[in-house]
Each structure stands twice: as C-alpha cells, then as structure tokens.
Design goal:
Elements: H1 2-19, E1 48-52, E2 58-61, E3 64-66, E4 71-72, E5 75-81, E6 84-89, E7 92-97
Antiparallel strand pairs: 1-2, 2-3, 4-5, 5-6, 6-7
C-alpha cells in the first residue's frame, strides 16, 4: 500500500512538471518574446534564396514558395525577374536581390541532355 501511494505522488509531480512551460535559463529577467505574425515572418528580415523563371515564375523568400500576387510579411510580390524580386507594401516598393546570382529556368524538351543508352 505504501508503494502505491508513493507511485501516485511521483506521478502527480511528473504531470504537474510536464504541464508547465519550460523556462530558458539564459533568458534575461522580464524578457517577453515578440508576437509572431500569422505567417511567422513579420519580425524576420526577408531573405530571397531562389528564383525559378518560366511561365509561372517562383521565388523562395524566408523558406516560402511565392508566385506573383502572393504576400509575405504584409508585402505583395509584384514581379519576379532574373536575380531579383519586387515587393510592394505599405512602406512602398522594395527590391530583394539574390545573395548568389543563381537563377534556374525549367528545362525545355530540346535542351535536355540525356546520357547515351548503353
């Protein structure tokens, strides 16, 4: 009987500890994390990492694939061009440039190089 009571007590402590949010010991006293936006990008700087040109151009900004007309962090993609993306928002127009100048274009049937058959 004594072991059973001890087991219930330890289980109750474990449940109470798991219900609390863990505290970061390196966080300064009184620190409050900034509120996250619904798309998770309002506080993050916008970083353009990939552009794919073609009939439906695509840009990857902060890990999100975007086409012309879609929005990120309150800014709408207005154009996707080689090496850069144009955005428009309340603060006006903004240009994001690729860190490296690699731009991909979808393959056309005539440009595909197939290895020779063995």
């Amino acid at each position: 009987m004594h072991n059973w009571i001890w087991l219930v007590f330890v289980s109750a402590l474990a449940l109470q500890a798991s219900a609390q949010t863990p505290i970061d010991p390196t966080r300064p006293n009184g620190y409050a994390a900034p509120a996250a936006a619904s798309d998770g990008t309002a506080n993050a700087p916008l970083r353009l990492t990939l552009i794919r040109l073609g009939q439906k151009p695509l840009a990857v900004i902060n890990g999100r694939s975007l086409h012309v007309g879609e929005s990120i962090a309150g800014q709408r993609v207005t154009a996707i061009q080689p090496g850069r993306v144009l955005l428009a928002g309340e603060q006006g127009q903004r240009v994001l440039s690729l860190v490296s100048r690699k731009t991909t274009t979808p393959y056309s049937n005539s440009s595909i190089k197939r290895p020779p058959k063995l």
